[in-house]
Amino acid sequence: MNSLKKLVTTIQNSRRIVIATHFNPDLDGICAALVCASLVRHYKKRNPILFCQSALPSRYRFLLHGNKFVKKLPDFDLLIIVDSAKILRVFQNISERQLVKLRSKIIINVDHHRSNDSFGRLQIINGRASSSCEIIYLIFRKLGIKINRQLADVFYCGIYGDTGGFIYPNTTKEALKIASELVELGVKPSPLVKKINVKTLVGTLLLSEVLNTIEIENGVGIMYLTQDMLKKTHAKMSDSENFISFCQAINGVRVSLFLREEKDATRVSLRSDGIVDVDELASRYGGGGHRRAAGIRMRKNITIVKKEILGAVHNELKKKA
């Protein structure tokens, strides 16, 4: 039985289905969960439960169309995890005992990250895909499921988000072809992108604070966000999504780091022009992603993390010299 037949059969044989995306969700993670929910409804004629441990950025709520995400994982027969290379990207602060219990259940893993550790009983993984939404779009096409205008908008937003507006290196011929097909289905890119990229005043003030921290040394750009900045501007952590693109766009920067201080940990976003495989580097610290874009979460002070990761990046650059 091929993976799509297994997917459909597993959905049809399950009574209580939960669809989960990673905490601190990006646009592709949110959209992949939403379109996956539509896939489940096609076969079950009932709503699955959407799960995300952290709040969704407010500017993306227009995509929900009545759907709601819960923050507490309910009982389930089937758990479909989208856009997450590791189970630990979905569940923060989970105990080893809870993790063992979770892994014993039926889990379907749908993802496009090269660093995916192939968890779950069924894996639908394509490291060459631009996004998880691209993978699920192709599932819809192969299964002959109709995509309406509302759903087309969600697919488009997911692909747009993970390709950085169709400018990142993962903007493939296939991704552009799918985007074109979605436009033919009625997607209006201009107003949709305007909604995606809308900025709040507090988010803009936070950006100003973060940009003032930029340091550049030997082709590496680094900037950071602290809890004090959030308090000063009254912004949320989710307002800082894609801030790293400002650092990576600076002339001469080959690798950029964006450190975000959480209450009990430090998050690091990494970008590279290809000279350093940041996915491989991030994997050393329990993170991962793609060759040119990856992330890490470390339970250490932001100052210690800065020194550690910056040192690792410089060591990689020395190897290339």
From TrEMBL:
Coiled coil: none
Pfam families reported in the protein's UniProt record: DHH, DHHA1
Protein name: DDH domain-containing protein
Organism domain of life: Bacteria
Lineage per the UniProt record: Bacteria, Bacteria division TA06
Domain DHHA1 positions: 232-315
GO molecular function, one term: nucleic acid binding
InterPro entries: DDH_dom, DHH_sf, DHHA1_dom, Oligoribo/pAp-PDE_c-di-AMP_PDE
Species: candidate division TA06 bacterium DG_78
Occurrences of domain DDH (ranges): 16-159
